[in-house]
C-alpha cells in the first residue's frame, strides 16, 4: 500500500514496517519468495543481505520472523539504493538493528570475515551479454557490476564455518550456480523450484552450507 509519494521515492507497507522504494530500486516477487525461504531464523543470528537494493529482504525477514536478530547488514554498491535504505531505517527506528553498508561486495571491509550466520542474496541473474537491458535496472538484473562468482565468493568470505547462504536465481543457470557454490566451499543442501501457474519453473531457491557434507534435497512447488 502506498502511503506517500514524492519525486524521490514511494513508501510501501511491509507488514508492520514501511519501506522506501524508487522507480530504479523496487522489488519483485522473487525477493519476497527468498525471504520466506530464509525462514525460520534463529534468535541472535547475525545476518547479511548482499545486493540488497532498497532493502526489501531485511525488512521482509523482520516482518516474517518472530525471533530477535542481533544485527542485519544490508550491502549495496549503489549510493541511491543505500540512501533509500537509510531513510527506511530511520523511518522505522531500526538504527540499532539494520546496518546499511555502501560497499562493493567484492571488497567489503566494514564487515569482519567469517562473522555472519546467514547470508541472503538476490544477485543479478543474467550474464552481461545476455538479454534485454532496461537502463534503469540493468545492473540489478545483469552482471555488470558483479558476476555470479563475485557474489558467491563474497558470501563465502563473510559466513562462519557452518553458516548458511540462501539465495535465488533463474533455473536456466542452475549448473552455474551449483558449481560456483562448491568452488567456494558452500555445499548445496536444498533446492526448490517455483512453478506458479507455469509449466516450467520460473525461480530457483538455493540453500548452501559452508563446509557442509554433500547431499541435497530437491523439490518443486507453486
Outline the secondary-structure elements.
Layout: E1 2-5, E2 10-14, E3 17-21, H1 29-37, E4 46-50, H2 56-64, E5 71-76, H3 79-91, E6 98-102, E7 116-121, H4 138-141, H5 148-158, E8 159-169, H6 174-183, E9 186-194, E10 203-210, E11 217-221
Characterize the structure shown.
This protein is of the alpha/beta class. It has 6 helices and 11 strands. The protein has helices at 29-37, 56-64, 79-91, 138-141, 148-158, 174-183; strands at residues 2-5, 10-14, 17-21, 46-50, 71-76, 98-102, 116-121, 159-169, 186-194, 203-210, 217-221. β4 (46-50), α2 (56-64) and β5 form a beta-alpha-beta unit. The radius of gyration is 16 Å and the shape is globular. The model is unreliable at 1-7 and 132-139 (pLDDT under 50).
Tell me briefly what this model is.
This protein is α/β, with parallel strands linked by helices. The chain contains 6 helices and 11 strands.
| Helical fraction | 25-40%
Describe the biggest sheet? 8 strands, mixed
Order of helices and strands: EEEHEHEHEEHHEHEEE
- Strand count: 11
Strand content: 25-35%
> Helical element count?
6
User: What oligomeric state do these chains adopt?
Assistant: single chain
Main sheet strand line-up = 6-5-4-7-8-10-9-11
Query: What is the 3D shape?
Result: globular
What is the C-alpha radius of gyration, as a whole number of Å?
A: 16 Å
Unreliably modeled segments: 1-7, 132-139
Distance between the termini: 25 Å
User: In terms of structural class, how would the helical and strand content be classed?
Assistant: alpha/beta
Round the mean pLDDT to the nearest integer and report it.
Answer: 90
Amino acid at each position: 500500500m502506498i502511503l506517500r509519494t514524492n519525486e524521490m521515492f514511494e513508501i510501501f507497507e511491509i507488514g508492520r514496517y514501511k519501506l522506501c522504494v524508487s522507480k530504479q530500486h523496487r522489488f519483485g516477487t522473487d525477493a519476497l519468495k527468498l525471504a520466506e525461504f530464509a525462514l525460520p531464523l534463529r534468535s541472535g543470528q547475525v545476518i547479511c543481505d548482499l545486493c540488497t537494493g532498497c532493502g526489501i529482504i531485511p525488512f521482509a525477514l523482520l516482518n516474517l520472523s518472530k525471533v530477535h536478530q542481533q544485527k542485519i547488514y544490508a550491502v549495496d554498491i549503489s549510493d541511491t539504493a543505500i540512501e533509500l535504505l537509510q531513510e527506511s531505517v530511520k523511518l522505522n527506528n531500526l538504527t540499532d538493528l539494520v546496518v546499511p553498508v555502501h560497499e562493493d561486495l567484492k571488497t567489503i571491509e566494514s564487515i569482519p570475515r567469517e562473522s555472519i550466520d546467514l547470508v541472503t542474496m538476490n544477485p543479478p541473474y543474467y550474464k552481461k551479454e545476455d538479454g534485454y537491458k532496461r537502463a534503469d535496472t540493468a545492473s540489478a538484473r545483469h552482471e555488470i557490476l558483479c558476476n555470479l562468482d563475485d557474489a558467491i565468493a563474497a558470501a563465502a568470505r563473510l559466513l562462519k564455518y557452518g553458516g548458511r547462504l540462501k539465495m535465488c536465481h533463474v533455473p536456466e543457470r542452475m549448473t552455474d550456480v551449483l558449481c560456483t557454490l562448491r568452488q567456494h566451499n558452500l555445499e548445496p543442501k536444498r533446492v526448490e523450484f517455483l512453478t506458479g501457474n507455469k509449466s516450467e519453473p520460473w525461480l530457483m531457491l538455493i540453500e548452501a552450507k559452508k563446509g557442509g557434507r554433500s547431499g541435497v534435497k530437491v523439490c518443486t512447488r507453486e
